[in-house]
Design goal:
The protein has one domain: Ribonuclease H-like superfamily/Ribonuclease H (Nucleotidyltransferase, domain 5), CATH 3.30.420.10. Helix 6 runs antiparallel to helix 7 (about 160-180). The longest helix has 19 residues, at about 160-180. The protein has helices at about 70-75, 80-90, 100-110, 120-125, 135-140, 145-155, 160-180, 185-195, and strands spanning about 10-20, 30-40, 40, 50, 95, 120, 195. Strands 1, 2, 3, 4, 5, 6 and 7 form a 7-stranded mixed β-sheet that branches. With about 210 residues, it is α/β, with parallel strands linked by helices. Helix content is about 35%, strand content about 15%. Strand 2 (about 30-40) and strand 3 (about 40) form a beta hairpin. The protein is built from 8 helices and 7 strands. This is 3'-5' exonuclease. One of its GO terms (biological process) is DNA replication proofreading. It comes from Micromonospora inaquosa. It holds the Pfam family RNase_T. One of its GO terms (molecular function) is 3'-5' exonuclease activity.
């Protein structure tokens, strides 16, 4: 992408809520949200969020976000019913997340035909700075994003897909400004600082973005 500025690149923020990593290959997706960025800012009018019917009962574990109960999930569409919408939003674009490799591993396991341009990680970017706690909620507070989040996602809450996706979309330009305060970086500079590669299969096979 050469000298193209970072905010001229097609980026979408992503977050999933799942049944838990202890389910291993059987981990179910319970909720998904995608928020496009336009000129570096979240485009909430084009945001997509949905509960997902996992097709099986989900035990009420402590780490499953409030509100993700069998009663509401059984009324939600299955993942294959929203797969085309996710592909339309994500294919060919850079996918942004906070610890994005966790979400990508789960999503690509269920929808292996998705083909984003690559992955960007706000957690990787935050690790280059002096934040003592790099959790998403703490960074929202540290970078004074609380009011923006209430305005943008007041009907949601932390650890739900929409809230976390919007928070990540707002977090990216804040982190970029701290790293490059004088002028916006090129996308190549951002990619070098924030992109991640995740294996798509066994350890001896190349990853999707290698």
């Amino acid at each position: 992408m050469g000298s193209q500025l970072w905010h001229d690149t097609e980026i979408v923020a992503l977050d999933l809520e799942g049944s838990g990593a202890q389910d291993r290959d059987h981990e179910a997706i319970l909720e998904v949200a995608v928020v496009p960025l336009v000129h570096g800012q979240p485009d909430l009018d084009r945001a997509f969020t949905s509960l997902v019917n996992p097709g099986r009962p989900i035990p009420q574990r402590p780490w499953i976000s409030p509100g993700l109960t069998d009663a509401v999930l059984t009324e939600a569409p299955p993942l294959n019913a929203i797969a085309a919408q996710l592909a339309e939003l994500m294919n060919g674009r850079w996918v942004l997340g906070h610890n994005v490799k966790v979400d990508w591993r789960l999503l690509s396991r269920h929808l292996p035909d998705l083909r984003p341009a690559g992955l960007l990680d706000t957690l990787s970017l935050a690790r280059t700075m002096d934040f003592p706690d790099r959790s998403l909620s703490t960074l929202v507070e540290a970078l004074r994003l609380r009011e923006a989040m209430i305005a943008a996602a007041g009907g949601s809450q932390p650890h739900r897909a929409y809230w976390d996706t919007v928070a990540t979309a707002y977090l990216l330009p804040k982190l970029i400004y701290r790293l490059w305060p004088k002028k916006p970086p090129t996308f190549d500079s951002l990619r070098l600082a924030a992109s991640v590669t995740v294996p798509a299969g066994p350890a001896d096979q190349p990853g999707l973005f290698d």
